[in-house]
Amino acid sequence: ILFNNFMGLFPYIFTSTSHLTLTLSLALPLWLSFMIYGWINHTQHMFAHLVPQGTPAVLMPFMVCIETISNVIRPGTLAVRLTANMIAGHLLLTLLGNTGPSMSYMLVTFLLIAQIALLVLESAVAMIQSYVFAVLSTLYSSEVN
């Protein structure tokens, strides 16, 4: 993920992690394997995760629904988070890059400084997003054990 994110910062190279199909094809099998493993090997533990401790008996059916929905949307949120964050910075850099030819010299200088600052920010975002994807995947796997 980190390599793909960084490669997208170079001119004329496509950022594959900015497409939902790639990020979802990374997140969905990972999550599905964790769920299948957990439900087969730790069924009692997986059922216990559906109702937090101290939940009143009246709220238990609702909590099961809420926790199930929360668990099912995890791969989608993991994929959309990576995709949206990669698209946002690249879109901003592209929009700023396309306005340069129609500006005066002083504004072009300011625009160049702004693009360099955004490129540094995008490099940080590329690292942070790959880190977040890895940490959340690890967190999801630790809930199974």
TrEMBL record:
<keyword id="KW-0999">Mitochondrion inner membrane</keyword>
<dbReference type="GO" id="GO:0045259">
    <property type="term" value="C:proton-transporting ATP synthase complex"/>
</dbReference>
<keyword id="KW-0813">Transport</keyword>
<keyword id="KW-0812">Transmembrane</keyword>
<keyword id="KW-1133">Transmembrane helix</keyword>
<dbReference type="InterPro" id="IPR000568">
    <property type="entry name" value="ATP_synth_F0_asu"/>
</dbReference>
<keyword id="KW-0138">CF(0)</keyword>
<keyword id="KW-0406">Ion transport</keyword>
<dbReference type="InterPro" id="IPR035908">
    <property type="entry name" value="F0_ATP_A_sf"/>
</dbReference>
<comment type="function">
    <text>Mitochondrial membrane ATP synthase (F(1)F(0) ATP synthase or Complex V) produces ATP from ADP in the presence of a proton gradient across the membrane which is generated by electron transport complexes of the respiratory chain. F-type ATPases consist of two structural domains, F(1) - containing the extramembraneous catalytic core and F(0) - containing the membrane proton channel, linked together by a central stalk and a peripheral stalk. During catalysis, ATP synthesis in the catalytic domain of F(1) is coupled via a rotary mechanism of the central stalk subunits to proton translocation.</text>
</comment>
<dbReference type="GO" id="GO:0005743">
    <property type="term" value="C:mitochondrial inner membrane"/>
</dbReference>
<dbReference type="Pfam" id="PF00119">
    <property type="entry name" value="ATP-synt_A"/>
</dbReference>
<protein>
    <recommendedName>
        <fullName>ATP synthase subunit a</fullName>
    </recommendedName>
</protein>
<keyword id="KW-0472">Membrane</keyword>
<dbReference type="InterPro" id="IPR023011">
    <property type="entry name" value="ATP_synth_F0_asu_AS"/>
</dbReference>
<keyword id="KW-0496">Mitochondrion</keyword>
<keyword id="KW-0066">ATP synthesis</keyword>
<comment type="similarity">
    <text>Belongs to the ATPase A chain family.</text>
</comment>
<dbReference type="GO" id="GO:0046933">
    <property type="term" value="F:proton-transporting ATP synthase activity, rotational mechanism"/>
</dbReference>
<comment type="subunit">
    <text>F-type ATPases have 2 components, CF(1) - the catalytic core - and CF(0) - the membrane proton channel. CF(1) has five subunits: alpha(3), beta(3), gamma(1), delta(1), epsilon(1). CF(0) has three main subunits: a, b and c.</text>
</comment>
<dbReference type="InterPro" id="IPR045083">
    <property type="entry name" value="ATP_synth_F0_asu_bact/mt"/>
</dbReference>
<keyword id="KW-0375">Hydrogen ion transport</keyword>
<feature type="transmembrane region" description="Helical">
    <location>
        <begin position="20"/>
        <end position="40"/>
    </location>
</feature>
